[in-house]
Description:
Muramoyl-pentapeptide Carboxypeptidase, domain 2; 12% strand; single chain
Amino acid sequence: MPRRRAVPSVAVVTTQTLSSPAPPVVLLSDPRVAAVPVDESGEPLVRLPRELSATRERVRRGLAERLASAAGRLPDGIGLRVVEGHRTAADQAAIVASYTAELAARHPDADAARLRVLSSRFVAPLEVAPHVAGAAVDLTLVDACGDDLDLGTPIDATPEQSEGRCWTAADGIGADARAHRDLMARVLGGAGLVNYPTEWWHWSFGDRYWALATGADHAPYGPLS
């Protein structure tokens, strides 16, 4: 396991109760994320069991173990549903290009650097993308029948589509959605995952963003083909 180093002064949402005041957010475009070294562990991708992912998404083995642990901490009648895990570099690049084009149309005066920052609220730059490392999942909570619980927005709602309610600590969501986000934070954070604060559904372990958030001196999971 990577050794710990000093956590950066700009905080990252990890395991705190989400109804508490939100700290400043480090985006994936922040140079400090790319500066985290990777010491690739070689840990393989594994398929999640169907009780966690109907599509049996692939993630690193250590992440799969932690997701199983988190699922075991949930109250009876509530489960996790993972909808996406590992993503190819080509797929990641296509999402970045599509969303950046949408932002460019909305913000015609924005230069490339500003568009990169805006884009990173919703999709990671390719070189640091946790999904490409097999280190991240997009997931939600479901009831005993497998139906999605109220988390305030659909998974993958952009900041524009959700009017900012996709941010994990956002105002403007109902009491049930807030309680469900807090529950996710407790069980996933308790299993060692970290949340990307602009997307309530995105949690990761072992990538550069995780290392920056937790103070690890390197990331054990780097990009995969």
